Amino acid sequence: MPEQVLKRVLTVPVYDVADETPLEMAPLLSQRMQNKVWLKREDLQPVFSFKLRGAYACMVKLTDEQKQAGVIAASAGNHAQGVALAANKMGIKATIVMPKTTPPIKVNAVKRLGAEVVLHGDAFDEASVHANQLMREHHYTFIHPYDDYDVIAGQGTVALEMLRQHPKPLDVVFVCVGGGGLIAGIAAVLKQVWPSTRVVGVEPEDSACMTEALKANERVVLKQVGLFADGVAVAQVGEIPFRIAQTCVDEMITVSTDEICAAIKDVFEDTRAIAEPAGALAVAGLKKFVAQREVAGLEMAAIVSGANMNFDRLHHIAERTEFGEKREAIFAVKIKEEPGSFKQFCEDLGARRAITEFNYRYADSKQAIVFVGVRTEGGRAEQHQLIDSLRGKGYEVEDMSENEMAKLHLRHMIGGKAEGLQNETLYRFEFPERPGALLNFLSRMSEEWNISLFHYRNHSDAYGRVLVGVQVPPVQKDAFEIYLNELKYPFICEQDNPGYHLFLNTH
Question: Integer distance in angstroms from the first to the last C-alpha of the chain?
Fold first, then answer.
């Protein structure tokens, strides 16, 4: 199977539409990682993503009849632009089905290239089902984003360029993974020419379909898919990419949203380019690999796969970068409710330590609970030392630095506890960012359930972050569970979250 991919890679005419992108040294990352780090700049393609390689490689083989019928594709954005550009070049009608959560920058780019855009569903898999339905109705030719040998061969030309651009085999190559087309093409080529090169796939923690498939030794369907890295928001890896990965991919790494945000900053500092979340995945994986293995002196490359991101998202990314780099810690700390206690607490933190946040509201005559953000340049080791120091001085400290609810919501809404609430349960939701999402949530809810807390936070992302407290009588718990499952919005029960009991709950 890898041999079949390599033969196609050697003959596919991708440069009719694609550029050969540079393999650039990243001096700042190299210095920090103590390894030589190279960035394969696929963000410099005409559509700011590698996806046009595979799209054109597939479409150039269409028959005259297929060209006349037109093509259709489902995509969260980058494959859509690749298909649209290839169709424009070849004079073919193109219809693209995109999730409603797709960033406008990608939707508008596809329209500018002359394709018809159909918005459907909240994630790629729903868009794909609808695209297949339209294909059957109108007899279009479906251009799959990753589960196709020609598409995989087109993506494999990235590796072919790396072979020419680097004088000797790289030690490790990091590749982002969504449906698996890119890593399948790259791994199939590298493992036949540079068999000693370690190929590492990188996925978000909340969209790790290849990781789970390789663990299970079969393709699995994820129940929920995170939307932050929308370019890799796929519930099931492709069949062909999975089979190739089983023999050609050495390992998988998963990274958090905060680690992705920090990687976006790393790419920017070395290139002055802004990668999209999926585009920076490989860099985040590289950093985590180095930290976990404590390796040095290696030659490493990461594929910067795309740069299609709404500018408005940068606010959220910049905020979370501090956590991804472990340069900010947040704590809940109990201090005495008396004059001078805050000053004493700051002194105990250390006169030179920068406090980034301090939230508090009077609730008790003897004790105050404060929400504190602190700059920590020394990473988690320094944060743990700080916690130990505060506890040694008699403070009760709850570390919130890895607490998702605290980072997204609590820091913006600390203000006391409501009295007299019964049967309250706290949930954190991800709402698809589109008209009607909130109304859908409310209209399905029983009138016997009372919303006791509602906090919404969004930075023009593909989804909104919502924290909701709901009062549900014990006898209706089963009905409420059914409601949650039928709603199909990703959710997490935060009832046992220490932040809830410290700041919001009186019981």
Answer: 61
Question: Which tokens belong to 126?
Answer: 């729903």
Catalytic site residue 207? no
Within its chain, how far is the Cα of 212 from the centroid?
Answer: 16
DSSP class of 312: G
Domain end, chosen from 123, 142, 161, is at 142
* Tens-digit pLDDT profile for residues 73-89: 998 778 999 999 999 99
Write out pLDDT tens, residues 275-316.
999 999 999 999 999 999 999 999 999 999 999 888 878 877
CA separation, residue 127 to residues 66, 80, 97, 101 (Å): 22, 12, 6, 11
Q: For residue 93, indicate whether it is catalytic.
A: no
CA 80/CA 423 separation, integer angstroms: 47
Contact 201, 110 (CB under 8 A): no
> Which of 40, 51, 106, 265 is flagged as catalytic?
51
Q: 348 with 457, same domain?
A: no
Residue 137 has pLDDT above 90, yes or no: yes
Helix 379-392 to helix 341-349 angle (10° resolution) is 130
Encoded tokens for 122: 């909240």
291 in the same domain as 160:
yes
How far is it, in rounded angstroms, from Cα 356 to Cα 374? 5
Q: Which of 75, 207, 256, 305 is catalytic?
A: 305
- What is the pTM assigned to this prediction? 0.78
Same domain, 249 and 183: yes
Sheet holding 463-471, edge to edge: 450-457, 463-471, 424-432, 491-493
User: Which token pair is 151?
Assistant: 């598409």
Q: Residue 391: what residue type?
A: R
267 and 337 in a single domain? The answer is: no
Judge contact between 213 and 340, C-beta under 8 A.
no
